[in-house]
Write a structure and sequence with these properties.
By secondary structure, the chain is of the alpha/beta class. The protein has 29 helices and 15 strands. The termini are far apart. The model is unreliable at about 1-45 and about 625-643 (pLDDT under 50).
Length: about 650
């Protein structure tokens, strides 16, 4: 192309114009050349080594310009890793799930899997995790370099857990413990055990039968025998120690999972000198004596107890301020204080920073209180019952309820727990009526069912039109059920009134105060159809302690019987407090329910369910595991009986 020349002749303006036109033509030609150059560059390979995309779309656009597929894939993996470092796993997922990486080069396959597992677990993407797990074997992590092996194994286990395959996740970590001698054995074994606990019984049995390899066989046998039905924690301890003797060379026998180690050494960690501090005179004497009798009865019937090493001393808190008594006990050789029962005394312990002697309080601090180190709390919490009522309602699809609760501070706590648990799963109390037992219960029921509103509306219509109208009141139609919190004498009056006011078709749910503890068909026939929750001591079958105690003692029925059962559970809890505190999955099948502990040291109970039929309670099936898992582990609030 000839050089561009600017020509100017002052006497020839036309030529100037032609020269300008010529320049414009050359500019257009130059633009065409540049465009062609850019177009050619787009069709050729570009250097991606130093390019850093700011968005996933930008990275995909740059990769699409690269002719070499492996180079493009390596670039996308590098950018995906950079997004992960920045915490942007959503952008990383866009790249890792892109069509460009659908079939990674063999040299890049492991890198893609590692990055994919990291983002799938970070995003809690269960669908993606299942896709990854479907092509995953427990030994896959062994293909990674030594410095990445532990990370790959743990990501692999996390992905398998997210894909709901805890058994394969456990097998992955068992292999990691074998291949990585630098790994923390205690940490790995604790996690392996937590995963095996999640495997269903039938799956565990089949895996145990098919297991190959000394380590896997040992783990699966341990998991299978420890969860054998109808064995208590003491028997579990003997089983674990027996397994250690049979598998002396197994890694888990040398480094037991923390929870199993606690169970195996439970006998060594039991308190030997116990102070049982209860009111034995005054207004709480009946409760104190019932708890004392239950505690001692459970102790004498406990075959796992070495009576020669156990010293139980009983102190009457009605004569001495508990703070003074506790101070005296802290100067003696005492391992555990069981008590106090009184709320005020427990509040005194709660104000301390750390207890010099651990204490199992037989009541609860207010929910907004912080329990000091060493303080455990246990009682017959009505809040536990309120939460279980809410869970049962929601499990049966009854989300809109009407509520009857007594006036007073006790009722306040029950109402708060019930409403909170309902709201947690989109349930609602359409109306809550608070009452005194001396109230006009007909009026209370009419208000609850909307009859009063219906009647007032009809009266207003009559006044408006000036003539009498034929009127039949109607109850509100939006309610699914009634929650009736009332003792038996009041509940027997409420239940017929529901039918009288057109609510007889609504199912009714109640806590244990509705049942006096002894079958009375003639008196309780008015309660037919009411579903209620109560403790195993009252509703359970084949109870050796109850049978023997009833034969030789009075005061084991009704509310005193419930307190007797609470005392029996206080004995069994006294031996297992560290276990329940340190092992989240630990529980005790007690006389007052299945007992578990919150991280704050508060005991929660899961009770049984029954329904009045022909005036007699009949047991109902337990809640499904899925529903039981929704039970709140918030702090329980104070209640012992109905005080």
């Amino acid at each position: 192309m000839p050089p561009l020349v600017w020509r100017y002749k002052p006497n020839n303006p036309e030529y100037i114009e032609l020269a300008m036109i010529k320049i414009r033509i050359h500019k257009r030609a130059l633009a065409s050349v540049l465009a062609a150059a850019l177009f050619s560059a787009g069709c050729a390979s570009v250097n991606l080594d130093s390019h850093i995309a700011q968005t996933a779309d930008q990275a995909l656009e740059m990769a699409s310009r690269e002719d070499n597929l492996e180079t493009a894939q390596a670039y996308l993996l590098r950018i995906a890793s950079r997004f992960q470092d920045q915490g942007d796993h959503a952008a990383a997922r866009t790249l890792l799930q892109s069509e460009r990486l659908a079939q990674p080069a063999p040299t890049l396959d492991n890198q893609k899997k590692l990055l994919s597992m990291a983002s799938a677990t970070a995003l809690d993407d269960q669908s993606w995790a299942r896709e990854l797990a479907s092509e995953m074997a427990p030994s896959d992590f062994i293909d990674y370099p030594a410095d990445l092996m532990a990370r790959a194994a743990n990501l692999q286990a996390d992905t398998l857990v997210l894909a709901e395959n805890p058994l394969s996740a456990a097998m992955t970590l068992i292999l990691l413990a074998q291949t990585d001698n630098t790994a923390d054995a205690q940490q790995i074994h604790d996690r392996v055990w937590s995963l095996l606990e999640q495997v269903p019984d039938d799956r565990l049995d089949s895996a145990s039968a098919d297991a190959i390899g000394y380590e896997a066989q040992g783990w699966l046998e341990l998991a299978r025998i420890v969860r054998a039905p109808d064995i208590g924690i003491d028997e579990q301890g003997r089983i674990i120690r027996g397994w250690q003797n049979n598998w002396p060379g197994h890694p888990a026998a040398q480094v037991l999972p923390s929870g199993l180690r606690l169970i195996a050494t439970l006998a060594d960690s039991r308190p030997e000198k116990i102070a049982l501090a209860l009111p034995l005179k005054g207004p709480l004497a009946t409760a104190g004596k019932a708890i004392r009798d239950g505690f001692l009865a459970a102790y004498y019937l406990d075959d796992s107890t070495n009576s020669s090493k156990t010293d139980i001393r009983i102190f009457d808190t009605s004569d001495t301020p508990f703070s003074e008594l506790y101070r005296e006990l802290s100067e003696q050789d005492i391992d555990l204080v069981v008590g106090p029962l009184e709320k005020e005394a427990l509040a005194g312990l709660g104000s301390m920073t750390t207890l010099p002697i651990p204490a199992l309080g037989l009541n609860y601090l207010p929910s907004d209180s912080q329990a000091p180190d060493g303080l455990y709390q246990f009682g017959l919490s009505a809040e536990d019952e309120a939460r279980q009522i809410a869970d049962r309602l929601l499990a049966e699809g009854l989300r809109q309820v009407l509520v009857l609760i007594p006036q007073g501070e006790w009722g306040d706590r029950v109402e708060q727990a019930l409403l909170k648990q309902l709201a947690a799963s989109d349930g609602v109390a359409l109306d809550t009526e608070r009452f005194f037992r001396e109230d006009n219960l007909r009026a209370v029921t009419a208000d609850l069912l909307g009859i009063t509103v219906s009647r007032d509306r009809a009266i207003q219509v009559e006044r408006t039109i000036g003539i009498d109208v034929e009127f039949e009141p109607r109850r509100r139609q939006d309610a699914d059920a009634i929650v009736m919190v009332a003792e038996a004498t009041v509940a027997r009056q409420f239940k017929p009134l529901f039918a009288f006011y057109f609510g007889g078709d609504l199912p009714v749910y109640s806590p244990s105060i509705i049942y006096e503890g002894t079958p009375s068909p003639s008196r309780d026939r008015d309660l037919n159809g009411v579903t209620f929750t109560d403790i195993p001591w009252v509703l359970g079958d084949d109870n050796e302690l109850r049978t023997r105690a009833t034969e030789i003692m009075s005061g084991t029925r009704g509310q005193p019987g419930r307190l007797f059962a609470m005392g029996a559970d206080a004995w069994h809890l006294s031996k297992r407090l560290p276990l329940l505190r340190q092992v989240e999955s630990a529980s005790i099948a007690g006389q007052t329910g299945v007992l578990t502990m919150t991280p704050q040291g508060s005991i929660h109970r899961e009770q049984l369910w029954a329904q009045f039929r022909n005036g007699t309670p009949e047991l109902l099936p337990k809640l499904s595991p899925e529903v039981s898992d929704t039970v709140s582990r918030d702090e329980a609030m104070p209640v012992t009986g109905h005080n």
